[in-house]
Amino acid sequence: MPQVPDPVEQKLPVNQLMPLALQHVLVMYAGAVAVPLIVGRALNLSPQEVAFLISADLFACGIATLIQSWGFPGVGIRLPVMMGVTFASLGPMLSIAASSDAGLLGIFGSVIGAGIFGILIAPFVSRLLPLFPPVVTGTIILIIGVSLMRVGINWAGGGQPTITRVVDGVPGAFPNPDYAAPQGLMIAGFVLLFILALLKWAKGFVRNVAVLLGIVAGCVVASVLGLMHFERVGQADWIGLVMPFHFGMPTFHLVPILTMCIVMIVVMIESLGMFLALGEMTGRKVDRAALTRGLRADGLGTLIGGIFNTFPYTSFSQNVGLVGVTGIRSRWVTVAGGGIMILLGLMPKMSALVESVPQVVLGGAGLVMFGMVAATGARILGTVDFKKNPNNLFVVAISVGFGMIPIVAPNFFKSLPHDLHPLLESGILLAAISSVLMNLFFNGIVSEKEAEEEATKAATTAEHA
């Protein structure tokens, strides 16, 4: 009987590989550049310095993605993963930037410290696998998808409902006049319908790149309507080197480093859920050794980020959703995506071209991709026995409630100490902590062997789904 080839190791022809890789880059690009853009503007850096932050981020994104997807001895999950700057670090970094003792160089120092911390604790975090049976992983992945829907909806609306402006030297929040403009909603709806039409009627390779073709079609419509501009493309240089410590040697301060280490724990717990989700989608067993390699790559990517003038890195859940939509499970697609990110970082003109894609175009695609993540969580929960063990219902119900708090009530924890906000503002982390504790309370803990058997069974189920 011939052996079935491993879809994760499948090497596609170049004419298929590159469009699929570019599709991964496009769906993560807006999120990848958002953090350096916000931090740079908050620090009142010059446009040239902000542009360098973005190029450095893209360059480091590519390196971190290669480490994670391609893998090296002892490092990298070797699954289709794209790495990007985590939004969980944004609030703490803005607080660090506001400190006269730390500033931008203090941010880079804290990122380097957090990266080293992440590398050291990766083996210990990976031992948490017995705490994540299907009732827990399904709940976490469901909340990941629901949390991402807020991102996709705001993309479809053209940005955030409120924008920050500085008036008389004081920053303040003001309604975004362009949010949910009818023209933008029309484009997002067009992209969504275009993708759905391809998913229903197209076949083969065209169906696999439905999201990319939808984004291209949306860009054409946006250009015709005058919403896509290319002035920055013409002004950008063709080549720009990204040098370590461009802004100077990082400075190291205890409190910022401890704060960023807490963020690193948040990031690694979220990554744990991402890796388990990818294991389900790809049919690949994700055991403790694989989790250690993946989490160690998160730490190494963050360390590299601090060296190359950028920020903490994590596995981007947007791209997990894309794996679910396309059904393409080859890690070599994201390896090629990592190479594209490195080139974008070294070619400011090309990165400016990708940056010109309007958010409303990405929003139409985001609704499909992020919904697929939530659907994966629901499918995993479908394998849970709620009839014989009705307590599993309480695990899911309570954990979903906690995970929804930051989404439906962002100010719910505003009276608690500010240092706790990185933990409390992540619905994914709240759902993870709640589901683990509720499962321990109702069901106890299984042995490591049983946990690996459950992971193998779930992977087998996903492979035949």
TrEMBL record:
GO CC term (a single one): plasma membrane
Native organism: Paenirhodobacter populi
Tree of life domain: Bacteria
UniProt entry keywords in alphabetical sequence: Cell membrane, Membrane, Transmembrane, Transmembrane helix, Transport
A molecular function GO annotation: xanthine transmembrane transporter activity
Coiled-coil boundaries: none
Pfam assignment, any one: Xan_ur_permease
The name this protein goes by in its record: Purine permease
Entry's localization field: Cell membrane
Membrane topology field: Multi-pass membrane protein
Transmembrane segments annotated in the record for this chain: 20-39, 51-71, 104-125, 184-202, 209-230, 250-278, 332-354, 360-381, 393-413, 428-446
Annotated family: Belongs to the nucleobase:cation symporter-2 (NCS2) (TC 2.A.40) family.
